[in-house]
Design goal:
The chain is mainly alpha-helical. Strands 1-2 form a two-stranded parallel sheet. Helix content is about 50%, strand content about 5%. The chain has one domain.
Length: about 140
């Protein structure tokens, strides 16, 4: 889905050096898309700390998506086949969800099985893009130690 989205080519300009989105290790690291350090048993304390913070943040994000899908069950099995329509539907759900929260209408998350359907992202000049993403991740991990 990410690979086909209209936002993907815009992310470098939107995020710049200051912002980024989080992805799991199936994605290629970029300045705008950070991933955890791969753990082959040789991570230092700084890298392990980064991975813990990264994982904790992803858990919060996944919980937020879980709440959204609990409120709008249609999101579990969306039948749209056009990215533009799907994007508008998800955004509408997010807006309505935030209005409900503002009105004090809270819900509890239900347990749901979720599949990790991440698509590996490949772009031109892979080495340069990866090096920039790794450099940004290193700067962030050094700042949180």
């Amino acid at each position: 889905m990410f690979k086909l989205s209209s936002i993907k080519p815009k992310l470098p300009a939107i995020c710049g050096d200051r912002f980024h989105i989080l992805g799991d290790s199936a994605y290629s690291i970029r300045e705008y898309l950070l991933t955890p350090y791969r753990n082959y048993g040789n991570l230092n304390n700084r890298e392990e700390n980064y991975n813990k913070k990264f994982s904790g943040t992803r858990v919060l994000i996944e919980n937020a998506f879980g709440l959204l899908k609990s409120r709008f069950r249609q999101l579990i099995r969306v039948d749209f086949h056009e990215v533009d329509k799907l994007s508008k539907f998800v955004i509408a759900c997010c807006v309505l969800h935030n209005l409900c929260i503002d009105a004090g209408d809270f819900i509890e998350i239900e347990s749901m099985e979720e599949e990790d359907n991440a698509i590996a992202i490949e772009e031109p000049d892979e080495v340069t893009l990866r090096m920039r993403g790794e450099a940004k991740r290193d700067r962030i991990s050094a700042a949180i130690l």
